[in-house]
Design brief:
9 helices; alpha/beta; 15 strands; five-stranded parallel β-sheet; binds magnesium ion; 20% strand; Rossmann fold
Length: 265
Amino acid sequence: MENKFGKIKAVLFDLDGTLYLDGVIIGNADKTLDILRKKGVKIVFLTNNSSCTDDEYGKKLARLNLYKQGDFICSSLTVAAEVMKEDKKVGKIYPLATGEVTRYLLKKGYNIANKGEEYTADTVLLTFDKELSYDKIVIANRLIAGGARYIATHPDKVCPAKYCSIPDAGSFIALFKESNGRDPDIIIGKPYPYMAEYVAQKLSTDNEYMLMVGDRLYTDMAFGINAGLKTALVLSGETTFNDYEKSGIKVDAVIKSVDELAEYF
Ligand SMILES: [Mg+2]
């Protein structure tokens, strides 16, 4: 396995269940990242979680000794913002988003529906809104039912948490599907390929020189395979080896945790 990933220029890491769990880093993930950096590999932190901005992620990852200068952070929120820029159907946005994320979108120059003029929006952006309220659900539902452009940052139904998984954007998508029959027009995050295209473009590399490392088969590994990346499944999070064998999905490497990754470079 020595040098199996020797040609890899960038490693895209999932966060929860791959680099940390409940805010505690897994094994010696920080030291493994240092080994890869020394070999000239670009470290990319890739998350579907759109409940906060990349700046906030940078601070959190730096506190865990994972983020170092020169690393790259990419969330489904960043890429959604890029995709919306190119989308001619996106005019005024009604975001299902935290205040922090809404401020980020305003700073990026997006036209956000002000309070009182929500029904003039032509687009609903559904993110992992940890400040979701019934009023917001009612407004978004009416807009979606009325034919608004409907963009979701990611499809994850739940997010890992200490006592019990918490409802994530995919659960909100299911709520609107039940309520008005529509699915999003676009979903940005893993397993869809938008984030891979974005990272490859930003790092001026090709998908075949990128490796996706993650703990979920149907998001992380499916994303890597869909986008033509190399793939490494870690068993430190959601997936057991038995799940992997039963899935029929074929990845390039199965490892206990990221600590084993250095052996492949
Ligand atoms: Mg994960």
